[in-house]
């Protein structure tokens, strides 16, 4: 059977809750990812607004989407509201994609997993269910992976990507930013991806 799945999926709502519970910074509101929300809808975010009184807006990725998302958050704050609004109505339905949810539920189950810059977040990752274990790369190649399975991989020395991801500092406050760490020679993961905060800061801030 020449097919394997190395599952690295993450769930957004548990991560949002972890950020709020850590209490490292004051969160005025969340702009939730449109691509995730096309599948899960808006209901999985509702407990965040109810329990933590934090406004949320599901937004698309175009400049106007993001501007509207910020405006909708500000409006909620001014009105003293904390709810989940959907700016990305052209793609996101309140109930999400029911068929996709059923497939995900059938194939995957939640698991505790560590995130970069965070401790282990309970039930924030996905793994294949027992019925699909035969496709699980971690089990199929368990012997080959044994040497590295329990290794802890710390951030490179001097890299503050974890603090950037948690919103504690700006990319420009990292001592490696634009020095040792550039898109041509990335030190940390925030500079590797074109969606990474450090890459975006590098590309769009003035020299």
Taking strands numbered 1, 2, ... along the chain, how are they ordered across the largest sheet?
1-2-3
Assembly context of the chains: single chain
**Overall form:** globular
- β-strand percent reads 5-15%
How many individual β-strands? 5
Number of helices: 10
Instruction: Provide the succession of SSEs.
Output: HEHHEHEHEEHHHHH
**CATH class value of the largest domain:** Alpha Beta
CATH 4th-level superfamily of the largest domain: HypD, alpha/beta domain 1
Sheet with most strands? 3 strands, parallel
Helix proportion: 25-40%
The figure for the number of domains is 2
Q: Could you explain the architecture of this structure?
A:
By secondary structure, the protein is of the alpha/beta class. It folds into 2 domains: 1-142, Rossmann fold (3-Layer(aba) Sandwich); 161-204, no CATH class. The protein has helices at residues 12-22, 34-40, 46-52, 63-79, 98-107, 137-140, 142-149, 161-165, 189-192, 197-204; strands at residues 30-33, 56-59, 84-86, 108-114, 120-128. The strands form 2 sheets. The chain has a 3-stranded parallel beta sheet with strand order 1-2-3. It has a two-stranded antiparallel sheet with strand order 4-5.
Summarize the structure.
The chain is an alpha/beta fold.
């Amino acid at each position: 059977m020449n097919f394997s799945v190395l599952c690295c999926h993450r769930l957004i709502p548990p991560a949002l809750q972890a950020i709020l519970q850590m209490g490292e910074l004051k969160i005025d509101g969340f702009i939730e990812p449109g691509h995730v929300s096309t599948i899960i809808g808006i209901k999985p975010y509702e407990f965040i607004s109810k329990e933590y009184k934090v406004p949320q807006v599901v937004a698309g990725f175009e400049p106007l989407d993001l501007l509207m998302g910020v405006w909708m958050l500000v409006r909620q704050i001014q009105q003293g509201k904390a709810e989940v609004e959907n700016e990305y109505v052209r793609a996101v339905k309140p109930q999400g994609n029911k068929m996709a949810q059923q497939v995900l539920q059938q194939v995957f189950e939640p698991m505790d997993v560590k995130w970069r810059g965070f401790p282990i977040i309970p039930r924030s990752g996905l793994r294949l269910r027992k019925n699909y274990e035969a496709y699980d790369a971690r089990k199929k190649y368990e012997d080959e992976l044994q040497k590295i399975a329990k290794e802890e991989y710390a951030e490179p020395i001097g890299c503050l990507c974890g603090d950037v991801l948690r919103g504690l500092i700006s990319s420009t406050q990292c001592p490696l930013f634009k020095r040792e760490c550039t898109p041509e020679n990335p030190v940390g993961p925030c500079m590797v991806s074109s969606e990474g905060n450090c890459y975006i800061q590098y590309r769009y801030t003035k020299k």
